[in-house]
Amino acid sequence: MTRDEEASARRLPSGDGLGASAEERSFEAAEGIERILVHCVEEHGLPYERSDVRRALREAIRTWPGNPGERWRRWLSEAGASMDLRISVIESPLADVLKWVEEGVEVAAAISRDGRDEWVVLSGAPRRGRYSVFGVAGNEGPVKMSRSRLRRFLGANDEEEAIPAVVLEPALTCAPAHHERELFGGTNLSPLARLLMIARAEWSDIWVLLVFALISGILALATPMAVQVMVSLVAFGQLLQPVIVLSLMLLGLTAFWAMLRLWETYVAEVLQRRLFARVVHDLGYRLPRVRQDALGGRYGPELANRFFDIVTVQKVTTQFLLDAVDLVMVGVIGMAVLAVYHPFLLGFDLLLLSAIAFVIFVLGRGGTRTSIQESKYKYATAAWLEEIARCPLTFKMDDAAEFAAERAEHVVSRYLEHRRLHFRVLLRQIAFALLLYALAGSVLLGVGGWLVIQGQLTLGQLVAAEMIVAIIVGAFTKIGKHLEAFYDLMAGLDKLGQLFDLPLERQHGLMRLPETEPAELAVRGLAYHMGKRSVLEELDLHVRPGERVAITGPSGCGKSLMADLLYGLREPTRGRILVDDHDLSEVRPDAWRRHVMLLRPGEIFRGSAMENVHLDDPDIDQRWVRSAFQMLGLLESDGLPDGLDTQLSPTGTPLSGSQQRLLILARALVHQPRLLILDELLDSLSSLALERALDVLLDPEAPWTLLVITSHPGVIARCQRVVDLTSQGGWQRPVPLPRDR
Predict the structure, then answer these.
(1) Beta-carbon-side half-sphere exposure of residue 192 (alpha carbons within 13 Å)
(2) How many CA atoms, within 13 angstroms, populate the side-chain half-sphere of residue 414?
(3) What is the distance between the alpha carbons of residues 677 and 598, in angstroms, rounded to a whole number?
(4) Which of residues 471, 500, 529 is at a domain's end?
(5) CA triplet 666, 672, 673: central angle to 5 degrees?
(6) Which domain holds residue 146?
(7) Which of 69, 519, 645, 711 is spaced 20 to 30 A from 98 at the CA atom?
(8) Does one domain contain both 538 and 438?
(9) What are the residues facing 724 on neighbouring strands?
């Protein structure tokens, strides 16, 4: 949203605001947008009803009033955000849009017919060169259109003409939001259920692989069947010509099998890429919206390491689709052939199936559980090594290096203990599979030889049967590799689930705060409990628009926690937070954060100094960033050798600690929030840098209400009012400190 749009939205009165007739006309005109949203919600199985969609869309229309033909993309994207949809506004050539549709992406576009605006959704890969168009007037279902007809329908002169559109995608593609599972009484998903959910969007490619595997399984039996015929031909001493024909037929079949395997490999590679992209897409949306209290004291960067298990999920999933499915198909078809040869061999099939089931389901009990436990200690080991790397000075102290090594040995010993338990399960499965291989071949040879002697089986059939069983059981002897990969897959999905199961902030509520002046803040009876411990209790505070207030108190009294509550990172146990008479519990978090900014030390990411300030906001001009740096004196130092393009590490180097804090403060100068909360950001600044920063922050023309959490006497002295939190979590009434003015 541009600053002009935001200002326009904020100027709306909180009452009837928009004229009733104009509002109703917008609602009527936007019925097509409502159909699009309902279609997307139903298509992706999201737990929202039509009334939820209508409510969110009408709130968007009230927030950004205007001509539907101009505002529809804004309305769609904002209402979609409340429905767990990720909607990207684009303006691209029609050829590019159709390419995305062919790849399975849903795209919404607007058309004008008979002076009326209509909205349609292009979806689904085209079949026989025809695209599915949903939302065409007078049609309940999708309408099929050729490429040329669709171009004319959208009003494009040619495929290079850019059309305004939006890309419609579910925001959470790997697991539903936590509140959705609670809504349906669900719990965290099992690893296998999670795999099915992640792969759900790739079923079209998976079905292709399964069909190829079926054909490949049939063709894999071409050699045994050819050998059967060859033995019969040789035994009867027939001519050479049939042998040559048989060999050429076998060559053709095996060549076709090889081509199928090559195509399977390509499809599996595409599937790996899509799985990786899908998980990144999900986590890229999910992690910024995770509730702060959901981390439960866990270290976020270490928790994010679970993402690397996507490599295991990629490779093992495609490995199973390529090899394990082929093995199953060969086994099923091969056993069917054996059953046709003789009823005794049907009984042999049943015994073989029972033995295989015994290996997998009986001997494999505990395999998934022990693999998950092993994986937990693997990550515990990595977490400790990260701690050693994160605190280099600490572990260079006397005896600290020895402590680091001892702790590493301890976590490794726990890992090895659980690895040993897991391998015990794996070893007994492999041992029984090898025993089965020896017994199956021997038993079949004995029984088959007796049947040949009795004249109930031909020599060629016996040879073919031996080859088929050798293929089945021989591949089964490699079960150790497949089973270990399966257990690794389950453990990897369990680790990814730790990220997918993090509860998210609510994504619904009011989308606007109508005032343009600095925010007015009122806190009433605010309380927050951590378990049974009360951290904040009965907080009451009123901050007038534009007021500059210092928040002080002893360490641990809840100052930073109060900042979290005001910013919306945590939900209060009890009480209300009102901004301009709007209860924050009724405002969508992202809408509130267009008006508020919470700044703390250390929040620097890898990127340029400019990127760390503008945060990719398209409405922020480079000149504003440079001006903010000049106001804070950052351009006068040697810490930015390449100016605004200086690359910063996650630790903030090459900037000094004071310069890093000033850079973080520059974000506020550029983004200009209505409520600015500084959490001990100013306390470690040099006297010169502090005075410079305070001059900017306390400027009467600054557009914000300011809350400064601080223990610095110089900061406290310059604020208009001081509020002191007690160590018991109680509340002392605001008392202004005497100051010379």
Answers:
(1) 4
(2) 14
(3) 5
(4) 500
(5) 115
(6) 3-171
(7) 69
(8) no
(9) 552
* Residue with token string 């040995």: 409
What is the distance between the alpha carbons of residues 174 and 181, in angstroms, rounded to a whole number? 13
Return the SS3 of 728.
Answer: coil
> Has residue 179 got a pLDDT over 60?
no
pLDDT tens-digit series, residues 586-644? 898 888 998 999 999 989 999 999 999 999 888 888 899 999 999 998 888 777 888 88
- CATH number assigned to the domain comprising residue 117: 3.90.70.10
Given 470, 500, 530, the domain boundary residue is: 500
Strand pairing report for 675-679 and 596-599: parallel
Q: Do 123 and 57 touch, CB atoms closer than 8 A?
A: no
Mean pLDDT of 470-498: 82
Measure the CA–CA gap between 555 and 420, rounded to whole angstroms.
46
Give me the pLDDT at residue 728, please.
36
pLDDT > 70: what percent of the chain?
88
The conformation of residue 586, written as its DSSP 8-state character, comes to G
Residue 740 lies in a domain: no
Task: Tally DSSP H helices, then E strands, for the chain.
Answer: 27, 17
171-to-303, 308, 706 alpha-carbon distances in Å: 21, 21, 34
pTM here? 0.82
Q: Which residues contact 254 (CB under 8 A, 6 or more apart)?
A: 219, 222, 223
Residues in the chain: 741
| Cβ-contact 166, 76 below 8 angstroms | yes
Question: What is the CATH classification number for the domain harbouring 543?
Answer: 3.40.50.300
Looking at residues 510-529, what average pLDDT do you find? Answer: 85
Q: Which two tokens stand for residue 232?
A: 């019969």
Residue 736 inside a domain? The answer is no
Which tokens is 218 given?
């049939």
| 204 within some domain | yes
Angstrom CA distances, 460 to 239, 320, 467, 592, stand at 17, 33, 11, 78
Residue 188 CB-half CA count within 13 A:
12
Chain position carrying tokens 């926690």: 561
Q: Look at residue 575 and tell me if it is in a domain.
A: yes
Are 301 and 437 found together in one domain? yes
